[in-house]
Amino acid sequence: MRPDLEFFLRILVAALLGSAIGLEREYRAKEAGFRTHFLVAMGAALFMILSAHGFDGVLTSDNHRLDVSRIAAKVVSGIGFIGAGTIIFQRHAVRGLTTAAGLWVTAAIGMAAGAGMYLLAVETTVLVLLGLEAFNHILRRIGRRDTSSAAAEEENPSSFEQNDTENDENSTDRLR
Q1: pLDDT (tens digit, 9 = 90+) per residue, 36-85?
Q2: SS3 116
Q3: Distance between CA atoms of residues 57 and 69, nearest Å
Q4: What pLDDT was estimated at residue 152?
Q5: 166/160 Cα distance (integer angstroms)
Q6: What pTM was computed for the model?
Q7: What is the signed CA dihedral for 85, 26, 121, 77, rounded to 10 degrees?
Q8: Dihedral angle computed from the Cα positions of residues 72, 73, 74 and 80, in that order, rounded to the nearest 10 degrees
């Protein structure tokens, strides 16, 4: 197969697999959905292809070596930055960790597809989808433990309001 068609196939596979995860997240109305996962997987595949093949003709001397893993390693750092943006600490509860982890694994799937490891990419996508769905089903059956302060606030709303007021007053006193 011609290299340009092979590269296109790699990006296409990554985009389809990322889309599958994105559809699941979109269905669950999560912060990052179809388009985000689609773009993350496709971008990761492209960066992987560039990392491995983009600099083939740059150096002609045998005395120089290129580290083809450098661009791929930067994908991991970059996706960490994007994932961190989806994590929110609100009312003593952390939200968005699954979304961040989903973006992280979607980037890894895209990198695997970009490296031509189609079976690994497909198997990982199936495991991600099964995991997200199976764990959601299990948690629904056994009942979720609500660790957010919103549930505690419903039980005793005045204590939270009082604490917030006290904290505001203490903060104001410190500024004076």
Answers
A1: 999 999 999 999 999 888 777 666 667 777 777 888 888 988 998 888 88
A2: coil
A3: 17
A4: 45
A5: 10
A6: 0.74
A7: -10
A8: 110
Token pair in block for residue 50:
């560039």
3-class secondary structure, 59 = coil
Vertex 129, ends 125 and 135: CA angle to 5°? 140
**Residue 43, burial from CB neighbour count under 10 angstroms (0-12, 13-18, 19+):** buried
Tokens of 6: 């092979």
Q: Which residues have a Cβ under 8 Å from the Cβ of 14 and sit 6 or more positions away? A: 41, 42, 44, 45, 109, 110, 113, 114, 121
Record the tokens describing residue 7, joined without a space. Answer: 């590269």
Neighbour-count burial of 4, counting CB atoms closer than 10 A to its CB (0-12 exposed, 13-18 middle, 19+ buried): exposed
The answer to whether residues 48 and 6 touch, using CB atoms and an 8 Å cutoff, is no
